[in-house]
Specification:
Blueprint: H1 2-30, E1 32-38, H2 44-54, E2 57-63, H3 66-77, E3 83-84, H4 88-96, H5 116-121, E4 132-138, E5 140-144, E6 168-170, H6 174-184, H7 194-208, E7 212-215, H8 220-225, E8 231-234, H9 236-240, E9 251-254, E10 261-267, H10 276-286, H11 289-299, E11 329-330, H12 338-350
């Protein structure tokens, strides 16, 4: 009897150990989700709620520009990521290169809440076969009114204001900076005309660059919050995530009246993802209206993307509205003409 009992206990222990091992294996294989997203763009509260509801651990790496993201992906850095967040032009490129998994709409029922306006803009993937919009918005300019002269221009001309020399920064992003210059000159932000591009470069190098401290897409928000920069080209979430809410009235964020470069950032699943079902769960979770409202509230975003989120938002005061983007252009894939931008951007960035 003792021997039988001992064998029974031993068998139970072995089976229990195997069970735990199996659970651990499943956890390591299916209990993770790897995101590659922009800096300052994934609310901790949303991630924590997703982890709590699904038991899936979310690991996040950040990038500062589409170019940085794409260079890493092309070098094989997409291996291990399950969701990447490219803007419209790079989403288009990734689709054309066959780098993305198709989106199973049956597993993303909340896609029905995506604003129909985005379908008009998203010419690269109107039916969301390979991408699901994360946010439609625009970069802009933040001014700390506590330091800046009161009569500053709410246009791109602000970067030529010598009264604030050494107190400004611009994004380290060629499409954003050159697009802003092109719009200020009255051209399309996607222009590939050689003469127009040269005028834009001359404007940046001769009038704007002497006044700015640096081109920076990563650490400028902290410098702005400390009062080191008075004016920064930025995305609103960068700035407002660093500024206490009781100080938001001191910040004037605006999209220049000439327009700028608007964007649609997307959630895409790269080929080779090992956690596609988890990725689809996260994408669907993000577009749950009440969850999406948390995302908008976190950064002071307007409800431009999810049609039902506004009902659940606490914030009714937005950094910008859809109306503010009426003169803006969406970044498009420039194809071979992108090299024109690349060459001229080297002059902007590195010419003394």
């Amino acid at each position: 009897m003792y021997g039988f009992t001992r064998r029974l206990i031993l068998s139970f222990v072995i089976l229990f150990t195997l069970f735990l091992t199996g659970c651990k294996r499943n956890s390591s294989e299916n209990g993770k989700l790897y995101l590659y997203n922009w800096t300052y763009y994934t609310p901790d509260s949303v991630v924590e709620q997703f982890e709590k509801e699904t038991g899936i651990d979310v690991i996040i790496d950040n990038f500062a520009s589409n170019e940085e993201m794409f260079a890493k992906v092309m070098a094989g850095g997409n291996e291990g990521y399950d969701i990447i967040f490219p803007s419209s032009d790079y989403t288009s490129i990734m689709i054309k290169l066959g780098m993305l998994e198709k989106i199973d709409h049956a597993k993303v029922p909340n896609i029905r809440y995506v604003n129909p306006l985005i379908k008009e803009k998203a010419t690269y993937d109107r039916d969301f076969n390979y991408s699901v919009p994360y946010f439609m918005g625009s970069s802009g300019i933040a001014v700390n009114k506590a330091y800046a002269p009161s009569n500053y221009s709410r246009t791109w001309a602000i970067f030529g204001d010598k009264r604030m020399e050494g107190r400004m920064s611009m994004l380290d992003d060629m499409r954003e900076v050159m697009g802003g210059a092109l719009k200020h000159l009255g051209y399309s932000g996607n222009s590939t005309d050689g003469e127009e591009l040269q005028q834009a470069v001359d404007l940046i190098v001769n009038e704007w660059k002497p006044n700015i401290v640096k081109f920076d897409s990563e650490s400028f928000a902290k410098s702005f919050a400390r009062g080191e920069f008075w004016v920064s080209q930025c995305y609103s979430e960068n700035i407002f995530s660093e500024i206490p809410k009781d100080k938001w009235d001191d910040i004037d964020f605006f999209i220049p009246s000439e327009g700028g470069m608007m964007y649609i950032d997307n959630m895409v699943i790269p080929k080779g993802s090992k956690h596609i079902d988890a990725a689809l769960k996260f994408i669907n979770f993000m577009h749950t209206p009440a969850i999406y409202a948390q995302f908008l509230d976190e950064f002071g975003f307007p409800p431009t993307t999810n049609t039902e989120a506004a009902k659940y938002m606490e914030n009714t005061r937005y950094a910008f509205t859809a109306e503010d983007m009426k003169n803006s252009d969406i970044n498009i894939d420039l194809g071979e003409d992108l090299e024109k931008f690349n060459s001229l951007w080297q002059i902007v960035r590195y010419q003394p």
